[in-house]
Amino acid sequence: CSVLLSPHQKHYPGLCVLKEFKMVKVHVYFIHTNTRSPPVPVITQTNSRDKWSKKMDFLLSVIGFAVDLGNVWRFPYICYQNGGGAFLIPYIVMAIFGGVPLFYMELALGQFHRTGAISIWKHICPIFKGIGYAICVIALYVSFYYNTIIAWALFYFYSSFASVLPWTNCDNAWNTENCTNYFLKDNVTWNNYSRSPAEEFYTRNVLEIHKSDGLRNVGGVRWQLMLCLFLIFTIVYFSLWKGVKTSGKVVWVTATLPYVVLFILLIRGATLPGAWKGVVFYLKPKWEKLFETSVWVDAAAQIFFSLGPGFGVLLALSSYNPFTNNCYRDAIVTSLVNCLTSFMSGFVIFTVLGYMAEKRNVNVEDVARDKGPSLLFITYPEAIANMTGSTFFAIIFFVMMITLGLDSTFGGLEAIITAVMDEYPGYLANRRELFVLGLVVVCFLVTGMCFSQGGAYVVKLLEEFGVGSSIIAVGFLEAIAVSWFYGITRFSNDIKSMLGYSPGLFWKVCWVAISPAFLYIIVSSLLKPPPLQLFDYKYPDWSITVGYVIGASSFMWIPIYMVYKLVWTPGSLKQV
Predict the structure, then answer these.
(1) Would you say the C-alpha torsion 385, 263, 331, 60 has a positive or negative sign?
(2) pLDDT surpasses 80 at 221
(3) Quick one: which of 129, 175, 177, 509 has the fewest CB in 10 Å?
(4) CA distances, 218 to each of 53, 228, 555 (Å)
(5) What residues does 30 pair with on adjacent strands?
(6) Cα–Cα distance, 92 to 386 (Å, whole number)
């Protein structure tokens, strides 16, 4: 029989669960040993931990975390850059053999052990506990730059309540002589110095980046953006302060509304002149790209960052599930929804890019150069501003961006909250509201440095170095620790105790060999990043060094804890 102890008990060889009796507040396990002694009842408290009110609360929370702004800005860009429709082949392959198995693994781990990213290692392999601390540091870095982007979206949302959107023309105080408005005008010359009204609104009015000399002098604080950030964190606090009981209700709005907006924008985009050019450019396969290693690496990186294993969020969210919840089905459903959302977002983006190419009388690739925030804050708003009903479409577009961002923020901060509270229950068990308040205040104060006039440079640095290689290396070690040290047989028995059946050979092979190799390929490719640049600013060498220090500041907790564990724990290496 399989070993099945409570989430807070260790695994011991020769112990078997004979029967489980559910009582009002306790579970009673009769454990039989190999000796002649009678079965020993072990009583553990199980109802003290929060639980999801409904299954859909959990599913929407996971979907909301996984489907984020990257699905809208990153996937379409990477898809057309790496062969259009041909890119779907490596993307699907990497999802099947790398992304989904890791996603399933984290959901199963969190549900079985019912604890966060730090204390879970007591049950898996204690020497790897530094992974939990590294995950929390990375989650903080994500919060610092990600909420900055949401605050920018909130500023745009506020600016959209105007009969004429402020990024429609060149007649504003922030515009320069290079501002060129080619919509609704004939014989407009577009050159390398031309700047659209939308670009100047973003760079000179929202960011005021022209008043900064770079990272050495980031300039003054943008108080309007700080106010937007305060409103964002206020929403975040009151969504998380009571745990999954409150956040599970909020996601019914924040996780579903983006799909309504995406559908509306898809219909509108399909009716624009030139939309078909964008779709052809998006999906036209370039089969020769399949022979380039970089395409497969990009596919692996995209599916990893899109699904989000390794961030500790899936561990935290699934830890509030019932023990017998079908986490296998959840993994398949939510992964499928995530991938289909990315694919649909490509149509939403490229129908509009085709429209802009038609208006500029240029090729689609000439207007599809922007990626990341520039795609969402320059390219798409520029197209919206010149549609009929521009105010309405601008409002719903930025509502979609805000809700997409909030879901991911909920997940990232919940990973930290669950991890720390489970690690220090004696101090924090009845103080969740205060702990969440303290965490939100710290995030707000540190994120404030991203709202100087050169704050966009800081955001870019955190995005490139604060997560990137570090989180993939963490995911790699997590997969190794579970599959090789904890043991694939033991892990499979854990899943069998929850679902009633063991995972198939495919999943075991993926967990033991394919998924770790998948992560190793990604992290090895990211160790040599291209030169960093934002607009016309090239990051100096010293800033790249700072970036590597930021990346190392999270990952370093893994070897530090290993050394600490080896030095201070008595016994042999195997016992440690």
Answers:
(1) positive
(2) yes
(3) 177
(4) 46, 19, 28
(5) 19, 41
(6) 36
pLDDT at 38 over 50: no
pLDDT, averaged across the chain: 86
Q: How far apart are CA 98 and CA 304, in angstroms?
A: 8
* Sign, Cα dihedral of 425, 431, 432, 435: negative
Tell me whether residue 71 is annotated as binding.
Answer: yes
Does the annotation list 299 as a binding residue? no
Range scoring the smallest mean pLDDT among 149-158, 334-343, 363-372: 363-372
The helix-helix angle for 55-66 and 244-254 (nearest 10°) equals 60
Helix (H) or strand (E) holding 390: helix 390-423
Q: What angle do CA 198, 200, 203 make, to 5 degrees?
A: 110
306 is in an annotated binding site: yes
Is 407 annotated to bind a ligand? Reply is: yes
First-to-last alpha carbon distance for the chain, in angstroms, is 27
Among 550, 529, 530, which residue's Cα sits nearest to residue 459? Answer: 550
| Short-list 549, 563, 414, 462, CA closest to 61 | 414
Distance from C-alpha of 469 to C-alpha of 458, rounded to nearest angstrom:
18
64 is in an annotated binding site: yes
408 annotated as ligand-binding: yes
Q: How many CB atoms sit inside 10 A of residue 422's CB?
A: 23
Q: Is 186 annotated as a binding residue?
A: no
68 labelled binding-site residue? no
Asked whether residue 404 is marked as a ligand-binding residue, the answer is: yes
- Tens-digit pLDDT profile for residues 453-469: 999 999 999 988 888 88
Beta bridge partners of residue 29, listed in sequence order = 20, 42
